[in-house]
Structures are given as structure tokens and as C-alpha cells.
Amino acid sequence: MSVDTVSLTGWGRTAPTTAVRFRPRGYEEAAAVVRGRGPRGVIARGLGRSPGDAAQNAGGSVLDLSGLARIGGVDAAAGVVRCDAGVSLERLLRVLLPLGWLPPVLPGTGRVTVGGAIGSDLPGLDHRRAGSFARHVSALELLTADGEVRTVLPGTALFDATAGGLGLTGVVLGATLRLRRVSTGLMAVSTERAGDLDDLLARFSAGGDRLPYASAWVDLMARGRATGRGVLTRGEHATSDMRPAHAGRTRLHQRSGAAPGRSFFPGLPPLPGGLLGPAAAALCNEVRYRGSPRARTGELRPVPAFFHASDALPDVRPLYGRGGLVRYRFTVGYGQEETLHRVVRRIAARRSPAVRAVLQRFGAADPGLLSFAAPGWSLELDLPAALPGLGRFLDGVDEEVAAAGGRVCLAQDSRMRPETAAAMYPRLAEFRELRARLDPAGAFRSDLSRRLGL
Hints:
The structure is a single chain. This protein is of the alpha+beta class. It contains 13 helices and 19 strands. The longest helix has 14 residues, at about 280-290. It starts with a strand and ends with a helix. The relative contact order is 0.15.
């Protein structure tokens, strides 16, 4: 097992803190770290894709599980896979797709580990049908505060606290997942432009769930009658009769462009103020909107290109400046569309340089005590952390979301106040009580848990 002292941030590169990082090679080495933890506790970390501070632990220990990445066995007949927590969804997809299976839930990036997907209870593009990630876990192996590894099953209090529990109930070491059968490696995709937010919401709803995967890019720089305009993309798994004669059933997409994770400007450190000013962001959004088809149906795309297109793009974080980026994701229920309208209008009026903004629809709530997804609309956006007054502005949005019965995503948060989190998550007291009972000494801690009093 390797050990070093390192400064860590989330993917957003805000608020770096220093911790002792352990990289175990097996379950027993991970258990030894938990048993020998110091007074600041320990938190698990995967590929570091959480935008905020959920996988940081200032002055304590961080258990890097990226080396625990074994895929133990795929039961292709039953559609079940057993794997370590450090396996990425991207790798799992590469292994499963040639066998005619997919991971149960696929978010917008494949660079998330199975452990991270459980700890944040990730929703995918078809949440209305499939729910979040942990709903498809039939068992998980959890390293608890006493240094023991337990098998935890759905329907138990510990499972519900661990699903979306941000690593604070223990270290997920492995899981058994139920998979989704597919007949080809292609998606049939529909794309359409919407002239404003009302139009966009109407198009979402009009499609029903016939095409189960759906998300929209929203132009948060547009104002006036174009406020909230966007591009809606929906898809379904292509059947064999849709596949071109020359296309193999399991052919994976050979992505072009820059190598994954490379910067737009190799060797260039993040600039103090970044390159994303309002004018540049507005131009980028205009080009993207005008360059999208007014309406197109039946386009065939390889599965990885549909779900993880952004993973083939260069690293855009240097554009946000040295302060990093703040990812803000919230959801409000159906019937609270006016709150969504007000938030979009506030962002547009402020001229905040937002080029990434994703709108989704959620279905039934998941059983995790701190799971994010709930029936309604979810909007996720990235903003430069150094924007003047950004903290005060987002505090105001928090209040509006909370007043509408909505919530901000804890797994992506980097700045919310503890009283706001308590107002948004009514089962937080139940989560704290269970943690206090199972882990009275506070073995599992993170910068996020201290900041929000989880």
C-alpha cells in the first residue's frame, strides 16, 4: 500500500485541503487504514469527480480506492455483475456492452466509480423509468467503523443510509449490480430546438417516456423572449432492425478529437480570471444553439457517444480561472415550474457566464435518506467560482429552491450552508441518528460533512 501526503480538491478545483492519502491493494489493507485512523477520521475517494469537497478530509486520511478495480464476474445469463468499488462506469461499459448488457444507470460521464455512484446515488438520463444507481444494487460490501466488512442488502436501514450517504456510513468496497439488456450497441436519437423555457418544458412533457433517455442543454445567457431556450436530446436503445447492415452489434464508438482529460491549452495553467467572460459565453451559446438541428429523428449513435460525449472533449476547467468552478444542481417538484423560471431569469439577468447547463426530469424518489433525485425538474450548471458575489447570489437561489420544497445536490455541493441542507433534506436527522449509533467516534468524516454538519 502506498502512502503520501497530498493537497486535494474536487473536480471543481475549489478549496484545496491536505490529507494523508492511502492507496490500498486489497480489502484488508483498506480495513487496516480504518482501524488505524487518526482523530480527523477517514473518507473514501474514487476518481475525484465530485465537484465539491465530498472526497476531501483536511488533516485526516483519504482512502483512494481507484486501485481496487476488479470485475469479479459477469453472469451474462442472469444479467448480474460483481465488481470492486474502484471500477469506473466507463470500464464497466466497455466490458458489458459486447455481452449485450449495460450498467444499470449511466450518468453524463463514465469517469465515476461504482463506489462513487452508490455514495452519491447517481441519477441517470432515464430516472423516470429506472431511478437512481443504488436502486439496482442487489448487495454491497461495506467496511464499517469497527474495521469489519459487512454484506449490506437493500431494504435495510444501513443500505438506505449508504445510498447517497457520501461515504459517511462506511467504505463501499464492492457491489453486485443488476444490469440492463440491450440488443445493439447503438442508440436511436432525437434532437430538437426549443425557443424558450416554456417551449422546452412542453417538449419534454409532450414526448412522455416513449424515448426514455432525455436531457436538454439550456442557454442561460439568452434573455428576453428567448430566455431559457435550449436543445432537447432524447434517445432509446436501437433494435436490430434499426441497425445499418454494415454495423456490428457491439461496435463501440471510436471517439475523435482531443484525448480525454487533456486541456484545451496544454501546458497552460488556469488563468487568474479565466477566459469565460459574459461576451465569450454568450457567443459560445449562440453558436451551439444555432448549430443544433431544429428537429431531427432517427439518428444512430454508439452508446458511449450518446451517454458520455463530454468525456471525449478536452478539459475545460482552465477556462474557469484559478478559483475553479462551482457546480450548482437543484431540483424542484412538478407544479413548481415558476420557481424554475425565476431561477433561470435571475441567472440570465445577472449575465453569469454559464455555457454548461443541463435540464432533466426526475421520477419517483429513491429510498436513500440523502438521495438527491425526487419527482420534478433538475437543473445543473457550472459557473466560475471567482465571480464577484457568487456566494450571495447562490444563497438567494438556495432560499428560493428550499421555499419551493426543492433541494440542492449534496454530492456536487461546495458552498451550501448547514441550515439550508437541513431544510432541504427532511430525513437528515434520521441519517445523523443512524451514524451516531453505528459510528459514535466519527470514523468517517469529510470536509463536506464538517461544513454541513452531516
